[in-house]
Amino acid sequence: MSADPRSARARVAIQRTFIGSVVALSIAFGVAAHAATAPAAAPSGAYTTAQAAQGGSVYAANCASCHAANLSGGSGPALTGPAFAKSIDANYKTAAQLYDS
Ligand code: HEC
């Protein structure tokens, strides 16, 4: 851990990209799964298709090597499923924590 504020800012920026990608992908996968069973519209407030696609590109370039293209995990843990949901619930109780931690 460095006390250099530039490092802290960079870390926050990376975390935002990190979490934003996962959230966008989770929503994209969730919407896809939902669409398979019910032809309902995306929930209001969800990411747009373009935003989800952008998050998907960031994920493919920076994350899929360890977490797998379909989020199922590899050298890193799965970013979907019950264990992931439990971890997110335990570690990020509010949206603000995603950005302020
Ligand atoms: C070099 C391999 C590697 C890459 C690349 C990588 N991760 Fe990870 N990731 C891990 C490992 C290992 C863990 C588990 C250890 C930890 O939490 O520090 C982890 C943990 C996580 C967690 C926490 C999972 C949980 O259950 O709480 C999230 C979310 C995550 N990664 C998302 C991402 C995203 C988004 C990217 C791309 C921006 C990414 N990771 C890139 C290896 C990687």
DSSP strand content = under 5%
Write down the overall geometry: globular
Oligomer state of the chains in this structure: single chain
Largest sheet: none
What is the rounded distance between the termini? 14 Å
* Helix content bin: 55-70%
Structural class: mainly alpha
Reading the helices and strands in chain order gives HHHHH
**Small molecules held by this entry:** heme C
E-strand count: 0
The chain-level mean pLDDT equals: 74
Q: What is the number of helices?
A: 5
Radius of gyration: 15 Å
Residue ranges: pLDDT <50 for 5 or more in a row? 31-39
Walk me through what this model shows.
It is a single chain. The protein has helices at 5-37, 49-62, 64-67, 82-91, 95-100. The chain is mainly alpha-helical and 101 residues long. The radius of gyration is 15 Å and the shape is globular. The model is unreliable at 31-39 (pLDDT under 50). The structure holds heme C. Heme C (HEC) binds at residues 17-18, 21-22, 62-63, 65-67, 75-77, 79, 84, 87.
Question: How would you concisely characterize the structure shown here?
Answer:
With 101 residues, the chain is an all-alpha fold. The chain contains five helices and no strands.
List keywords for this structure.
globular
Task: List the SSEs and their pairings.
Blueprint: H1 5-37, H2 49-62, H3 64-67, H4 82-91, H5 95-100
Heme C binds at residues 17-18, 21-22, 62-63, 65-67, 75-77, 79, 84, 87.
